What does this fold into?
Amino acid sequence: MLTTVPTEAFIMLSAVLFVLGVMGVLLRKNAIIIFMSVELMLNASNLALAAFARQWGDLGGQVFVFFVMTVAAAEVAVGLALIVAIFRNRQSINIDDLHQMEG
Amino acid sequence: MGFEVVLFLALGIVAIACAIGMLISNNAVHSALFLIGNFGCVALLFLMLDAPFLSMVQIAVYAGAIMVLFLFVIMLLGAERTQDTTRQFRWLTGAATALGVSFLIAFGAPLLLSGLELPGSVGVNPLIRVVHAAQIGTVQTEGEGDALPEIAQEPVTVTIEAADSDEALVIENLQFSDVTDFIEVDEGIYSVTLSNDAGELASLQLTLAPEDVISFVAYGQADSSNPTADIGLPFNVLPLQQSRAQTDENQARVQALNIFSEAPLSLIEVGPDKALNLTTEGEVADIVRVVELPYGGQGESFDLNDGAHQLAFYPAEIESDTEPIQRLFEYNAEEGVEQLIVLVPDYDAPIQEGRYRTRVLDSTQETLPLPTREAFGNPRDIGIDLFTTYLLPVNMVGFLLLVALIGVIMLTRPTGLDAKKRRATRNRRRKVSRPLTSVISQQTGRDVVVDTPRLDNPDTTDDD
It folds into this structure.
């Protein structure tokens, strides 16, 4: 059954979620929260992809969402491993502490 | 507002609220839980977007595996409390908000003002058909008074031509009361021309959108030798829009059309066990439904339960003793069927006092719901797509996962030297570089070697 919700509405919601993710990356100082914001952005883009897939009646969009999810899973694993490694060295995951590492 | 719109708004608001909650929460665990809520909402939105497989993967992989990993790391590191150190960059908050808002405006303004030029759903072409209910031919008896002229019926030719194509669809020898089958055409601008041997009788231009179902109904009376002359009922072609909506269970749809009298008529459904006369012993009959039918205009279509009904065409202004123009006793409605009822004048009927010379043309067809796309977004089709069209990306992603796995193992391996080297260096003296010793060594030209107390060496305390 076709939904009566226009594709534009889904794209707009996806844009709002994406912007919230961007603001999380810019504003928060906790590396884990920044990571979660990146996940939020990926998820918002997935929503837009799925909306376009429905609009065009093309499965390609959904297959792409699947790939994004897979890559996101790999990225989270590596990213969290990085955070654990950094925490072991610096006893902190605040990125303001981390950038003093230089020099 | 439809149910789906309400559902979308509710899910959208909860998703945005969860995202904001994640953004401003001071506790990392709360942030993670808010994000799970957001992912759940997006999973439901995926369901609305015909993507059930993605919805399930979203819940299992994102809300399940990834968020558990997040929570695990947060609790492992004991990093629940996150104090923000934005005080050095207070301007950043405003700047980031301005950036986000400007992005939303730049992105959303064109979308909201003009809308995306998106194509319609693919694969649903408009359907058209022609209903010949006009009386075209040689006038035999001029109409006098209220009577209509009698006309010897002649067949007509209908030409349906797309504006951007040379090929035309020609339906020849269409007789009065003929109804053609539905013809699937591409969307676009079409002109429909009615003609006979003498030339063009009427024409109509129309834009067909996807999913349209249109019956071109020729109605009225025309003298074939002089089609513009007004001889009785006005002659024209009506593009009758029909609904694609599926009728409910045990329902049938009726679309009625009045091309009998220029005065508007009403189609009245009276309840069962009631006489079709509007008054029975001074009491008004149980009227279930009244549909206004202007001449040559599209009346409202309606759904009724299947089974027998009593329908009647009445003049629009009814008084208690008004006789119906045409009765449809025991009108039988079948489930899932759409019926077009056209009331036309009939000249074969004998002239009788107090009787209208009418006839009902009807054409029945199954309702034309939108074709459902069963094979959209289900796991089987995505799987077929993945392993045929997208086989190379699948392999690449698999390789990427392998690399990520190795990377994670490398990253989380015990820091510094491996165990063997560490054992070898355990008892060795260390060269210490402290400001004082470096000054001494600079001045003396010799390295200063200091014994490091064992307790200060964190690497050696946890071994053995």
Observations:
- The radius of gyration of chain B is 40 Å.
- Residues 109 and 115 of chain B are 9 Å apart (CA to CA).
- DSSP finds nine helices and 21 strands in chain B.
- Residues 52-77 of chain B form the longest helix (26 residues).
